[in-house]
Each structure stands twice: as structure tokens, then as C-alpha cells.
UniProtKB/TrEMBL annotation:
Residues 231-246 have a biased composition (Polar residues). It comes from Gongylonema pulchrum. Belongs to the Mediator complex subunit 23 family. It is found in: Nucleus. This is Mediator of RNA polymerase II transcription subunit 23.
Length: 246
């Protein structure tokens, strides 16, 4: 009732809280502040929680994620100690806090959100790394709820699709080793061979260097010589064809 009586929208109230979290004066108690904002948000009706997803979309559109992908790396505690105000890391921590504290009903919206709102926007390596760092750690929550294995599989397939999309657009990825590490972690910790076919189809569309690094996921040996053109051309009936990616 208080929220509905406010003279401004709830979205504006939430963004003001985000600004306060990102304020350098709050950095000394940043973890507590982030958790407080996340807990307040999760205590609200589900319709109000939609503002979290809107905020993540705005972060994905930010100028910082259209530059060097190195901005997505770093340690939040170190950034706080140095008072560098890395807003991407703070928003990442806020995302993890919300997704760890929210109800299973709210969490169930994540796969659809990734597929419909985040994946179509990815054009840079920095955006891809930000989304992977947001999504992959949260797979543990889905994994703990055994009945939600289908949602893990859906997210895993979308992760492969997003990686293919950005790799095809950008070419050689600057941090492909880190991205491959996340993909291996996702497979061996949460997914296993449940999406083996989808993973193999996706990996065959990646750059040669990434295919070589992911050969233990796809179980396909990459020849050091030039592959045939048929191996490079997308399969017309594949669900990973360009027309059906997003």
C-alpha cells in the first residue's frame, strides 16, 4: 500500500536504491547494502520484482559493456577496498543476491528472461561475459531443486547459443579461455550429457581455437588442417541454424 501511494513509480524508487548502493560512500558496507536491497525486493509481490529484470537489461545496454571485456573481471572486495566504483561488478553482485534470495517462483522466470530479453541483445564479448557470470553461478540453485533439471537444460542450451552468436559476430574472443572454463564448469557440475547433442552442434559453429579447447565437451577432434566447407556451413535442419538462434 505504501508503494502504491508513492508520488513516483516503484521503478524510480528502486533505481534510487541502486544509486545509493553504487555510491562510493556505501562501499565500506557494500555487501550488507546489496543484500538489504535484494531482500527488500524479494519480499515484494512478484509484479514489483520485475524491476530487477528491467534493471539488468539496462545494465546490458550500458556503454561499459560495449568496450573492452576486461571490465567484467575483477574482485568486488578488491574494488571496494580501492574505491574504484566498478558498477558492473556491483550490479553483478546485486543480481546474484536477488537470485539467491528470491522465491522459486521468481527464480523460474530466469530461463525465459535470458532467452527472450538478454540473448537477443548480445553483440559484444563484454555482454556475453557479464551474462555468463550472472547466470552460470545461479545454476547451483536450480541444481539443488532436483525437479528443476529442465530449467538447467534450457539455460545451458541458451548459454551455448549466446556463445555461438557472439563468437560468430566478434570472431576471435579475447577471453575465450575464461569462457571455455565456464562452459566446462557448467557441463561437469550441472548439465552432464543431458544437452550433449545441442552442445556438440553449437561447438561445431565456434571458431577453430574454441572448438579445440572444448573438444572434451563435444568429443570431436579438431584437425590442425583446414576443415572442409561442409563442416563450416550450418545445417539447414539444425535447431542452431542462424534463422532460429533468437
Amino acid at each position: 500500500l505504501i508503494l502504491t501511494a508513492l508520488p513516483v513509480s516503484f521503478q524510480q524508487v528502486f533505481y534510487e536504491h541502486i544509486v545509493s548502493v553504487l555510491d562510493s560512500e556505501a562501499l565500506h558496507g557494500l555487501h550488507a547494502t546489496i543484500n538489504a536491497v535484494a531482500l527488500i525486493l524479494t519480499a515484494l509481490p512478484v509484479s514489483f520484482q520485475q524491476v530487477f529484470y528491467e534493471h539488468i537489461v539496462s545494465v546490458l545496454d550500458s556503454e561499459a559493456l560495449h568496450g573492452d571485456p576486461s571490465v567484467c573481471f575483477g574482485n568486488l572486495e578488491s574494488e571496494c577496498f580501492l574505491l574504484t566504483e566498478n558498477q558492473l561488478l556491483t550490479n553483478l553482485a546485486l543480481g546474484h543476491a536477488y537470485l539467491q534470495h528470491c522465491s522459486t517462483i521468481s527464480l523460474a522466470a530466469l530461463p525465459e528472461f535470458v532467452r527472450d530479453q538478454l540473448a537477443p541483445k548480445l553483440v559484444t564479448e563484454a555482454q556475453l561475459i557479464f551474462v555468463l557470470r550472472l547466470v552460470v553461478p545461479i545454476l547451483q540453485r536450480f541444481y539443488d531443486a532436483k525437479e528443476r533439471s529442465k530449467q538447467i537444460q534450457d539455460l545451458a542450451v541458451d548459454v551455448y547459443k549466446m556463445t555461438v552468436k557472439v563468437n560468430e559476430r566478434v570472431g576471435v574472443l579475447k577471453y575465450e579461455d575464461s569462457i571455455c572454463d565456464l562452459l566446462y564448469h557448467m557441463k561437469y557440475m550441472y548439465v552432464g550429457d543431458f544437452v550433449k547433442n545441442e552442445a556438440e552442434q553449437a561447438i561445431q559453429r565456434l571458431s577453430p581455437s574454441m572448438r579445440d579447447k572444448l573438444k572434451y565437451i563435444s568429443h570431436t577432434q579438431v584437425s590442425s588442417t583446414t576443415t572442409t566447407s561442409s563442416e563450416h556451413s550450418p545445417q539447414k535442419n539444425s535447431f542452431l541454424s542462424t534463422s532460429s538462434l533468437f
